[in-house]
Design goal:
The complex is a heterodimer of chains A (about 550) and B (about 325). Chain A has about 550 residues and is an alpha+beta fold. Chain A has 17 helices and 23 strands. Chain A has a 6-stranded mixed sheet. In chain A, strands 1-10-9-8 form a 4-stranded mixed sheet. Chain A has a 4-stranded antiparallel sheet with strand order 4-5-7-6, with helices on one face. Chain A is globular, with a radius of gyration of 28 Å. The relative contact order of chain A is 0.15. The longest helix of chain B has about 40 residues. The radius of gyration of chain B is 24 Å and the shape is globular. The chains are: A alpha+beta (about 550), B mainly alpha (about 325). At the A-B interface, helix 1, strand 10, helix 6 and helix 13 of A face helix 2, helix 3, helix 5, helix 7 and helix 8 of B.
Amino acid sequence: MAPSRIPSRRPRVVLRAVTATAAAALVLSACTGGAGTSGAGDTSGNQLLTIPREDLATFTRNFNPLSPQAAPMTKEAVYEPLVVHSMADAKDTPWLATEWEEAKDGKSLTFTLREGVKWSDGKPLVADDVVYTFELRKKVLGGLEYLDKVTAVDEHTVKFSFNKAFSPGFWEIAGQQIMPKHIWSKVEDPAKFTNPNPVGTGPYTEIEKFQAQSYEVRKNPDYWQPDKQRIAGIQMLAFSGNDSANLAFTNGEVDWTQSFIPDIEKSFVAKDKEHNHYWFPPAGAMINWQLNTTKAPYSDPAVRKALSMAVDRDQITKVAMNGYAEPADCTGLTRTYDKWRDTSLADSCTWTTYDTDAAAKALDAAGYKESGGKRKLKNGKDFTLDISVGSASSDWISAANIIKQNLAKVGITATVKTPDWAAVVSSYEQGTFDTGIVWSNNGATPYEYFRDMMTSGMLKPVGEKATQNYHRYADPKADKLIDAFAAATDESTQREQVNALQKLYDEDAPAVPLFTGPEFGAYTDARFTGWPSEDNPYATLGNRNTSTILVLTSLKPVKS
Amino acid sequence: MRLILRNLGFYLLAFWASITLNFLLPRFMPGDPVSRMFAQQAGGMQPEQIAQLRKLFGLDDRPLWEQYVSYVKSVFTGDLGISISRFPTPVTEVIGSQIGWTLLLGGTALVVAAVVGNLLGIVAAWRRGGMLDSAFPPLLIFVGSFPYFWLAMGALYLFGVSLGWFPLRHAYDAGLTPGLNAEFVANAGTHLVLPALTVVAVTVGSWMLGMRNTMIATAAEDYITMAEAKGLSPSRIMFRYAARNALLPSVTNFGMGLGFVVGGALLTEVVFAYPGIGFQLLAAVQGLDYPLMQGIFLTITAAVLLANFLVDIVYVRLDPRVRVR
């Protein structure tokens, strides 16, 4: 083929057309620039509390409190529980119930409802509503096996009868959002009802301007504590991830976030030292390095303790967790359970203190000797292990990498495996994993934690799907203690059981506890004040948990 | 006509293969939606709730082939089930409420990139060695080699945060009600500029290069010399003679692009929090929401196949050679 020949002609027309288009585009962009966003800097007194959801790209108009995918504020502002429990100070605040009484035999609970509470359609709250709520919940979601029946003693008294003494049931019952019978009894399929215009007893119930990525929740005209409805309303914004939500937050367009902000001092607080604050109380669950106790050598408590001694918890909390977490001790209890902790035991902890030499000696003593820089298993093979973490949890991955370095010092070769969480959880459930980083159960008392950590009730054989106790450890002594705890109605008896459980935990080390997880939360007080803080820890800074309603009823708008 | 029918048969086969893959692939993923939710909550959920949620969602425990039969049946009746991550919204409603924004963003970006890229390619080839021809291709290839989301974040920071020319997120301002009025359309327009611009910036280079290369080959043909000899005006030769014949590969690309519009702008949607289905797909995969995943995959597959089929038809019309074969 001949070399292509291009005529040297001037296609002026087209060039002009192209430049014209470009110019038009520029003019257009200049005209439309500077579009205003939500009420940043608005301090008229009527500003809306703006909350981002970094995990929801769009909202669905579903205000059904029984739905796990209920729109934000359904359980936090529209519907209210009988009693509000705060994980920050472990206190119970009377809410729709003014008082409650547990029967001496522990087999029933009686709540007295607050007088004068009205639904947002003006009808009064009565005991029948509570009875109906629990009927509905059992029908739709099942569960509550210990609950025999719920009866309305009179218009303002409800009695819950159990089929066995079960004191931890209090928090599950007291924390249930109460729904109006006069509305829901007319609903055909309550499981799938989306409840677009909810009727609740909460401070903010009126849904306005509902769009795919934003909506407003305005004041309930009939709220029972009108003096606490100081803010005009809540505006929810949808975001597609931490990055876009954090951008809006550092820009001052939203007031309150609980998404993870890396290096928060620099990226957020430094921008406006006067107004930008954060508080990460250690109110989360215990984060464990679990060892599969069905596999050798992890079936040996001495090995579990030795591995635990090899782990540098200070480095993990400082480096991997940015200093936002608190190292664990040998009671296995989080900071939330400080009042349950056996301090004499905690002071004499041995296997949760970082000591490479002691770890090496303990492994030697257990029969896993080192030769040529590598520790050997009893069958002569190298001592190696896998640590599983889900790929989305960057902080936990760096914790696993620190453990890997720590183990190298005692001659153990660890491999950090980071597939998607779905794959990790599946290996936990089936019991096929080696070791892994995992959360634990975080209830109002240590009952749920110890039950899931050490008892046979939650134990499933390898190959059968477990929902807790992935490490598959159980001790009949723990079973007795946990049942005695649930049956006890006075705190001193419960304390005895918890002390015994801590002792058992210390002896057997069912898992390697790493640190108490922090509850993230940050806010700007440029537009609202009254936030919880270290000095006034009435709630955590979470905007989607049980104590959120305490924050909503404490905030005051800034007026200028 | 026979050609179109033959193609139709092929497309039906491809459609069957892809819906079968749609069905199988999600089920090869380990775990199930409820334990996934449980993992995300990291201790915030009670184990008892797992059984409750399985009951509520009515998760499928039937044998695989039974699930497959009912799945194929539901595909053809348009009933795609109920989304788990957006429970209790039907999948068709989730997709229906968001696909419009994806089409708007992807369609606008595709049309702008194709028109601008082709025009640049025509001009560059016609004035080979000129300013446009030597400066633009390297520049556009350079820009085009950036990942979408990187460019999107850069643009967001520069034009959104620093200069404040454009809004930072969403398809329209919070508090506005969608409707066909001037205020809303203008608002949606300003929200569209940055996301569309970043997609255009990345894709325009390949359009330009493709067009330029075919154009150069076409310009060497004898009929161009013939047209020049006849004394036709340069612009007439450029567009009617050269560009028209060089346009065929671009039509194919446009058709392919049209198909990929549906699933293509995922990362851009994530950066700008644009309410399209790209992000919804990511969320569905992360949450193991089988019904929604299948629904979105199905939509994407159908869009790609449909676009290709349309291109085939247009080709028959545009290129006489295809008809002969």
